[in-house]
Task: structure prediction
Amino acid sequence: MTTHLLFDFFGTLVQYSPDRCDTEYPRTRATLQELGLTLSADELTAAWEQAWYPLEERSLADHREFSMVDVGAVLLRSLLGSEPDPAQTRALMDVYIDEWNAGVTPLEGIAEWLEGLAQEYRLAIVSNVHEADLVPTHLEALGLRHRFDAVILSVEVGWRKPHPAIYATALEALGAQANQAVFVGDTHTADFVGPEGVGIKSFLIDPQDRAGVPAPRRLDTVFDLSTRLA
Result:
């Protein structure tokens, strides 16, 4: 019997741009200028990609998570040519994250839908993120933080989906067995293959049917979960 629902966050409950530098980031560039670094939007994009992608490729290989401060340190080290001040790195990342957050929007009706599910199930978030307060901040803004019994984040666990440790951490936090839980997300390996591998029944949001998961486990939108649970 299903008693617990585990959700991915970005791309599942909220919409966002996966491109980490898809705007001009004026405040981020202004913060860099205070450090004596004048970059155009294109130059910031190029510098960000040079800092980001080696860390991302490593994580894709071994599933160990990195933080935004890790990225910021690599970025500033390359631009300054010296070891950056930790406080400056943290301040830069705070500004960057705030600008990035402007592109995050909740799905229409998601708050009310989750409120309804919370009457029947215990809810949890299991998300690959690089900043510990990112998801909780969005949940607070939605007025839903109290509805989630656990918010499990890769940056805190140290392992990202699809590593088994992050799902085990979620189940332990909920006091649940794998066969009592359902996982829902929009990324095939992280949100379907990973949880299925540890015995959690999973549903993939895949309106174009790109991943080829069994039809009963494929959703056009997260809201389709209601009929599957019924």
Observations:
- The longest helix spans residues 41-62.
- Strands lie at 4-7, 14-15, 105-106, 122-127, 148-153, 181-185, 201-205, 218-219.
